[in-house]
Design a protein that fits this description.
This protein is of the alpha/beta class. The chain is 34% helix and 15% strand. Bound molecules: 1,4-dihydronicotinamide adenine dinucleotide. The site of 1,4-dihydronicotinamide adenine dinucleotide has 32 residues, from α4 and α6.
């Protein structure tokens, strides 16, 4: 099948080319992000392959469908950027990669936590400048601390298991608790988790229910000096409320791999220009904030699985004998 692959980077091409040896699709790589302005690039392509910051709202889906696209193949697990009811109305199929490496994301969340706790990113710069002072680098033992995990899916449970390995107690909140997770985590209402956790890590998807789940009210319930880690989706956190909480000291350390306005920033080199997002730039001024640009998924294993599953989804659609990993318009997360 001819596939228009949006938002492609050199590493996407490398892994897709490798996986495509087993499928033989015609992959046309497009650098730009998919938006209403770039949708015309996909004219005549039966399949559009998209990533997390591509826009698949009503307008874009209508443009794609009018130009012959039948299949949207996401190279991601998250699908909050797709207007699923509109895709169904237009008769388009949407497929995704449900779990390409939950370990990659869980391990990155742990990396953010460990770096923030011991301020290794600051220590690295100090030592290079011959500054061996320890002021400002004071951490705490993870052993014995209470960790709150919001969302006990694939990633949240692996994160929980790692934190148990450090000797932490793990509280969890999830509208669909997993019976087999109860030896690992203690399910509690979100309010209890917010009040009792020393460290909170977000692993829920972005849905209408989790949009700004962590707002000023939720933050007010947290312990003073709490560590907050978000590798889920940017909009789960109200960034302005978090900035206020950093200023007051309510949030002691913040680790982000996702940001609510990341579409305009992440996955590009903007170092030669002026970044006009003042909220993001304010975040970068805090010494106790560590931000990575949506790289939690970025491991060899994950990219291999993403490429293989994406192409297997497309091949199954092309064969017409059922689809793999199709997302229903009324998908419940
Ligand atoms: P999953 O679908 O296995 O698990 C999600 C869990 O969140 C489910 O158990 C669900 O019941 C729970 N949930 C839903 N609504 C909730 C709520 N209101 N409060 C608490 N829990 C809720 O998904 P998986 O694979 O664990 O991924 C989680 C999220 O991580 C994805 O939706 C995606 O947004 C994000 N992600 C981020 C990546 C990155 O590179 N930073 C890469 C991959 C995923």
């Amino acid at each position: 099948m001819r596939i228009a692959v949006f938002s492609t980077k050199p590493y996407d091409r490398r892994f897709l080319e490798q996986a495509n040896q087993a499928h033989g699709h015609e992959l046309v790589y497009l650098d730009p992000r998919l938006t209403a302005e770039t949708a015309a690039l996909a004219a005549g392509f039966r399949c559009v392959c998209a990533f997390v910051n591509d826009r698949l709202d009503r307008e874009v889906l209508q443009l794609l469908q009018a130009n012959g696209t039948e299949l949207i193949a996401l190279r991601s697990a998250g699908f909050n950027h797709v207007d699923l009811p509109e895709a169904r109305r237009l008769g388009m199929t949407v497929v995704r990669v449900p779990a390409y490496s939950p370990h990659a994301v869980a391990e990155h969340a742990v990396a953010l936590l460990l770096s923030l706790n011991r301020m290794t990113f600051r220590a690295y710069n100090r030592v290079r400048e011959g500054n061996f002072s320890l002021d400002g680098l004071l951490g705490f033992d993870l052993c014995g601390k209470t960790v709150g995990v919001v969302g006990t899916g694939e990633i949240g449970l692996i994160f929980s298991r790692i934190m148990r390995g450090f000797g932490c107690k793990v509280l969890a909140s999830d509208p669909f608790p997993k019976a087999d997770a109860e030896a690992l985590v203690q399910y509690v209402p979100l309010e209890t988790l917010l009040a009792d956790a020393d460290i909170i890590s977000l692993h829920c998807p972005l849905t209408p229910q989790t949009d700004h789940l962590i707002d000023a009210q939720a933050i007010a319930r947290m312990k003073d000096g709490v560590v907050l880690i978000n590798t889920g989706r940017g909009r789960v956190v109200d960034t302005k409320a978090v900035i206020d909480a950093l200023k007051s000291g309510k949030i002691g350390r913040l680790g982000l791999d996702v940001y609510e306005e990341e579409e305009q920033l992440f996955f590009q080199d903007l170092s030669q220009g002026v970044i006009s997002d003042d909220t993001f730039m304010r975040l970068t001024t805090f010494p106790n904030v560590l931000i990575t640009g949506h790289q939690a998924f970025f491991t060899t294993e994950a990219l291999t699985n993403i490429a293989e599953t994406t192409l297997a989804n497309i091949s199954a659609f092309e064969r017409g004998n059922g689809t793999l990993h199709r997302i229903a318009a009324d998908h419940v997360v």
